[in-house]
Amino acid sequence: MIEIILEEKQDLNFEKLKEMIEEKKTNVGAGYLTDQGALFLVAADLGISLEKTPKSEYSLKDVFVGARDVTTIGRIMSINPIKIFLKRDSNQESRNRIINIYDKDSNVKVKLWDDFVDLPEHLDLKLGDLIKVSKGQVKAGMDNKPIINLSSNGSIEIVLEGGKYQIPLLSEITQTIDDLDVPKENMVISGRITSDPRISAFTNSRGERAKSLHIELSNDNDTRKIRSIIWNINEEKVPKSLTIGSKIKLISVKTKIGNPNFSNGDLEIHGDEGTGFEFIDQIEPLENYTLRIISARIDPSEKKMHCMAIDKDRKSYLLLIDIKLFDIQIETDDVIECYPNRVLGNTIEITDQDSYVQILKEDKDIPGTGQFESKIMDIDSMNTPYVVEVIVLQNPNKMDVNTKSGEIVSVADTIVGDDTGEIRLVGWRESSSLVSELKIGERVRILAVNAASGKEGNMELSLKPYSNIMKIS
Q: Which residues, other chains included, contact 192 with Cβ-Cβ below 8 Å and sequence gap of 6+?
């Protein structure tokens, strides 16, 4: 609209036009006119018609809130999963999903509605594809940035490479760990995995339980390591193998100042359900593993068994076994052979039809749990699972606490000891019942328990989903 007016009135400049807009807002429609509404009145005063057809194709930096029938070209950076919700006014089910596109100057989100949400699958869209988005309506997102909404008569089509649209490839905008200097959004970052990736549960901003992927990425010479978290992940989209030493690319992430409680104050990498993974140099895991079970515990809510196990080289692994698929009784000191469907660092998943697990006869090459027993005085590492034999010295305390996310969870603690010292034992959530059931004076064997730093900085024992407690008669 501004371009049309300035084109018609050569003696009028942008600053003068802004003054005329403000005058209309103040004198004519105080509290009722937007800049755009005032511009209609200014155009009428000047005798200019705004019925001219606006330009049909926008670069992403020129897309503005309120634009209609927008057509633009961009390269796909991310494709988010479909979200389903109920409309407030009609209680009818609706679906949408986000595609993030970029060009040489900017990024814009495209929101697909209802019948359009399946377009990425129908068109076989992939990250890095060049697409044309036609007849979109631009609205403001939660962050007040423009979002192109696509429904009704809108469309998406793939654009052939090599034409007039010179939009950089994903490889051309990829940055390394050494390149990261300031917080920034819509990034592609490459790095080498230097810690065992893990998936953990958390409560999101909507109060729902969700999962996040945690990895550490470094530069080529290991002089800089960056904590990386991918939030709200769909586990099916996580690669089947993420192992230490592999070099990967994270597509559609942002950097932010790290939380000093969890990192060294350097930047952190954060992604979400739309973040993509691409291997640059992958280290393949073993096809099958022979392991001894140190501890095993069933999570009835997930219908899965969590285990801690070791191999013949005393390397420890976390096992996740779907008990709906495998009717097998696994106990402490059993030796198993397994063919996993996913390996995330030291976490082995046996959770679909492509995986397999069986109990073997005794394998003397793999150490038994007795060789991993420790005394309390020897507990000093927060990265090593311990086996300890202790006596309960205090009646357990159990309470419900509010976490930082507002979630109410159960926590129980007690004091245990052996002939070398005493230490606090803590269990959170499902593990709290293991602690609360203990009685003063009982002798127990705690399997695969981790050390942690307590409130006062003292070392304490913290039960994990795979930890277990055996009472000794």
A: 217, 218, 219, 220, 245, 246, 247, 248
